[in-house]
Specification:
Layout lengths: L1 H14 L3 H29 L7 H10 L14 H25 L15 H24 L2 H24 L9 H19 L15 E7 L7 H5 L1 E5 L6 E5 L4 H7 L6 H21 L22 E10 L4 E9 L4 H8 L2 H7 L10 E8 L2 E4 L5 H17 L2 H6 L4 E7 H12 L12 E4 L4 H9 L13 E8 L15 H18 L13 E4 L2 H10 E3 L11 E11 L1 H4 L12 E4 L5 H6 L4 H7 L5
Antiparallel strand pairs: 1-4, 2-3, 4-5, 6-7, 6-8, 8-9, 10-11, 10-13, 12-14, 13-14
Helix pairs in contact: 1-2, 1-4, 2-3, 2-5, 5-6, 5-7, 6-7, 10-11, 13-16
């Protein structure tokens, strides 16, 4: 590595004739590549709607473009390979330095550049990126095409003048090469225009179906539990200082790269929707000073309760290329196509590692319900295998439609032997093992009947506190802003009161047919003790505190649910007497008496419920 840097400096010495210029030349040879690659990424990210920052390609490219960065352990390149490449590059650079030495004139000492013919290329290689950089700074700071042009001119002209001063050591030579300055400025402007107006058709790219070998798709909007499925635990330290650390392993790029969906038709439909969405953004951005990926610039698409989110697509083409595209779109508008993706076996195998687990690899099973995490008391090895096999079958059969109408009632964790050994090592030191309950849990839905029956055979009674017999009362509290509460003050005339109430009265009466007297003041809380109403609440609510959530089924966040257990049930509650705010109503299933009591309208459900897929 030292030899590589030494050879780079030697080339810089041979190209220049002055110490200061030599140091500047070494900086250019060392950092020009990373700077240009980073600038290119900045251009892509700013102007191209569907650009995906592919770090697996970007970081290695930056490292390989710099002799200095090549000496650092920035990527997974083996040390032996990096050392061998460094040695080979050093030899090549030293041979180049020897060639330059033989061609170098003795009179070059004292001049900025030893070779006149290198001045123009080096000038262009520096001035053009400088002009682009000036434009991008202006775009980022001021969000204006006009200021972008101003920044480009400033970057190009100032850099050109500085280089002329360095070349000639004379301020009078600032504009001695006007044509080259014009060329560099126009080249910078052309590159900006290519990205600004997407002249290369990047955002409209769509492969033909017969060109696609397979494809990977991921929407973290619809898969919010990737951190649970993909993350792992590792032990750091040694001896008595061992401690568990959650290792982030839910790399969306790695997931879509490894995913191989052979049915490309629904993904092509997704991409078409994403392209159409991007084109509508591009059409709108011409009315704005400059386009930025902000919600305020998103076009109107679909209804107010439609779910919008991101989709990452990796096309595995038959010619060996991998093409990434990142879209933000109306997911509700592509529900049929997205459902086919979510239900594809290859998709599920890439998302849920448990589907590839074998019974021999499993040490034990944990579960989580409203009372927290606990072990499944397995009767024998056959029961472990049955539970794993049944869960894998039901998870593989899980449909998107089921997720739109059900929510997890529990989570289950299948522990590998390595996982269990680490947990045992930490437990033996009386250390905190909470980290082991924050990864690798999977949802258990009410329709997973085989899994639920097997858990019951093992003596697992899920959510025992969520029964009418165990609950003394449920307190519902309205968390909506007080600004929306309409109260008639003493100074209001009947007409003023009617005018103030009219918009809300119309919306409310449309939904519930409430009397005027019921709309005067909106109540803030309700204590429910009737067993039938308690059961209706339980049937309409989802657990909010589990490790696994479900974004496909909309939740109504404006009403908090607090459960008070009966005295005889409190002793069974391991984590305190009150369950707290651990339940949330499903937007589609709000009980009628709750909607009527709290004056909940359709607008309220749209405003306080997460959007529906």
């Amino acid at each position: 590595y030292f030899l590589l840097l030494y050879a780079t400096m030697t080339v810089s010495v041979m190209l220049t004739g002055h110490l200061l210029v030599c140091l500047l030349g070494f900086s250019v040879l060392t950092f020009w590549g990373p700077a240009v690659i980073t600038l290119s990424q900045w251009l892509h990210a700013t102007w191209l709607n569907s650009y995906y920052d592919n770090s697996s390609l970007l970081l290695p490219a930056i490292q390989r473009s710099s002799p200095f960065l090549w000496t650092l352990d920035m990527t997974d390149t083996p040390a032996e390979s990096r050392a061998a490449v460094a040695l080979a590059a050093a030899v090549i650079l030293l041979l180049l330095a020897l060639l330059l030495y033989k061609k170098r004139k003795s009179e070059s000492a004292g001049h900025a550049m030893a070779f006149h013919m290198t001045e123009a290329p080096i000038r262009c290689l520096i001035v053009i990126p400088a002009g682009i950089f000036g434009a991008m700074v202006a775009v980022t700071a001021l969000r204006s095409d006009l200021f972008a042009l101003f920044g480009l001119l400033c970057g190009a002209i100032i850099t050109h003048c500085l280089i002329e001063i360095i070349y000639h050591f004379d301020f009078k030579r600032l504009f001695s090469h006007k044509l080259q300055l014009l060329f560099c400025t126009l080249a910078s402007l052309a590159i900006i225009a290519v990205f600004r107006f997407d002249l290369m058709g990047y955002d409209s790219y769509l492969p033909k179906e017969d060109q696609v070998e397979s494809v990977g798709v991921l929407s973290q909007t619809l898969e919010p539990n990737l951190y649970q499925y993909q993350n792992e635990i590792q032990l750091n330290g040694s001896g008595n200082d061992l401690y568990p650390v959650v290792v982030r392993n839910h790399n969306e790029e790695a997931i879509v790269t490894s995913m191989a969906l052979t049915n490309a038709a629904p993904v092509l439909e997704l991409a078409k929707q994403g392209i159409q969405y991007n084109l509508s953004l591009r059409d709108k951005r011409y009315t704005d000073p400059v386009y930025y990926k902000e919600d305020s610039l998103l076009p109107e698409s679909g209804g107010p309760q439609d779910l919008h989110g991101e989709v990452l697509i990796c096309w595995h083409l038959k010619n060996g290329r991998r093409v990434f595209r990142y879209y933000y779109m109306n997911l509700s508008a592509v529900r049929n196509s997205m459902d086919q993706v979510l239900e594809d076996e290859n998709y599920k195998k890439a998302i849920y590692p448990v589907l590839s687990a074998a019974a021999a690899d499993i040490s034990g099973i944990n579960y989580e319900d409203i009372d927290g995490c606990a072990h499944v008391p397995l009767s024998d090895e056959s029961m472990k295998e049955q539970l794993l096999t049944s869960y894998q079958k039901e998870l593989m059969a899980l449909s998107a439609d089921t997720q739109r109408h059900e929510d997890p009632i529990a989570c289950i964790q299948f522990k590998s032997h390595e996982f269990q050994a680490m947990a045992d090592a930490i437990r033996a030191k009386d250390a905190d093992i909470d980290s082991f309950n924050r990864v690798q849990y999977y949802p258990v839905y009410p329709s997973f009947q085989e899994t639920l029956v097997l858990l019951e055979r093992c003596g697992v009674n899920l959510n025992p506190q969520l029964s009418v017999d165990a609950i003394a009362s449920i307190t519902l509290e309205d968390n909506r802003s007080d600004e929306t509460v309409v109260e008639y003050g003493p100074s209001d005339t009947p007409q003023e009161a009617a005018d103030a109430e009219a918009p809300r009265a119309a919306a409310t009466s449309e939904d519930e047919g409430l009397a005027d007297s019921e709309r005067n003041v909106r109540p803030k809380n309700l204590i429910v003790t009737d067993p039938e109403q308690i059961q209706e609440i339980l049937d309409s609510a989802a657990l909010w505190s589990l490790n696994c959530t479900n974004n496909l089924n909309s939740k109504f966040g404006a009403i908090s649910i607090r459960i008070e257990l009966k005295q005889e049930s409190k002793a069974l509650r391991p984590y305190g007497e009150a369950l707290g705010y651990e339940l949330s109503f499903r937007s589609r299933e709000l009980p009628g008496f709750v909607k009527k009591y709290f004056h909940i309208t359709s607008d309220d459900i749209n405003s306080y419920g997460n959007n529906q897929y």
